[in-house]
Amino acid sequence: MNLTLGREDIVRLCERIEGAQTRAYAIPKLTDEYPGMTIGDGYAVQMALRQRFLAAGHKQVGWKAGLTSKAKMIQMGVNVPSIGFLTDRMARPENSAISTADLVHPRVECEVAFVMKKALQGPGCTRQDVLDATDYVLPAVEIIDSRFSGFKFDLPSVVADNGSSARFVGGGRARYVEDIDLDTLGVVMEKNGELVAMAASAAVLGHPAEAIAMLVNILAELGEGLPAGSFVMSGGITEAIAVKPGDNVIARFQALGSVSMRFVE
Ligand code: 0L1
Ligand code: MG
């Protein structure tokens, strides 16, 4: 990947993102100060952030693909998907109350999550490689929380901010990939009993496993593979919906059951 930032700037930006994430405040997008920043620089900041969290005792549980649907790319004004890491501290149980006090401006999106039984290594990872390496899939909701003021950002900034990762909830019913049509799953999201979004899983790069293959190939560019046992989210099928304290959210997935949560102060 093309890098333009030196080590000092990467550490500086990593500390800026870490502060915004852990103390929940909005910051201007990083490219305001570093207009020449590349997507590679964004990943260098993200990897530095991951090192900091791991050194502080967080455990990585997997990865997420982001911006993998046309709806999300249009919503956020970008044209390339991204990846981010997921840790144990971001996981929340199904049906739980999720605090918004430690989030900036949370939004929810429905995703298919994959649990891997075999490790994968790019480059050249394909949809079929992913399906062969998958133990099972389950429905999930990602709670994203861009740390950038007014959702004004670009891809290098979002990548540095770990793809807006904040919380995630897995649940519903786990299924083997050979038992379901993964590309035609219908999904509806309700907020406070009202339908707020609906789409089919093909919205994710034509097939959610395609997003996992993309993620494995980006990981290879970063010198990493996807370990067996990883929990991997394939990206929002619907656009992201804003939530606030008092909101109840339920995501209903065809063939995979539903995932619900509520938001509190
Ligand atoms: O999970 C994702 O699709 C990443 C979204 C990044 C941009 C945003 O905050 O909406
Ligand atoms: Mg997402």
Structural key phrases:
265 residues, binds hexanedioic acid, binds magnesium ion, Fumarylacetoacetate hydrolase, domain 2, globular, 26% helix, 28% strand, 6 helices, five-stranded mixed sheet, alpha+beta, seven-stranded mixed sheet
Give an overview in words:
Helix content is 26%, strand content 28%. The protein is of the alpha+beta class. The protein has one domain (7-264): Fumarylacetoacetate hydrolase, domain 2, CATH 3.90.850. Strand 11 and strand 12 (257-264) form a beta hairpin. The longest helix has 17 residues, at 7-23. It starts with 6 loop residues before the first helix and ends with a strand. The model has no long low-confidence stretch (mean pLDDT 96). It binds hexanedioic acid and magnesium ion (MG). Hexanedioic acid binds at residues 66-67, 72, 76, 142, 144, 146, 158, 163-164, 235-236, 240.
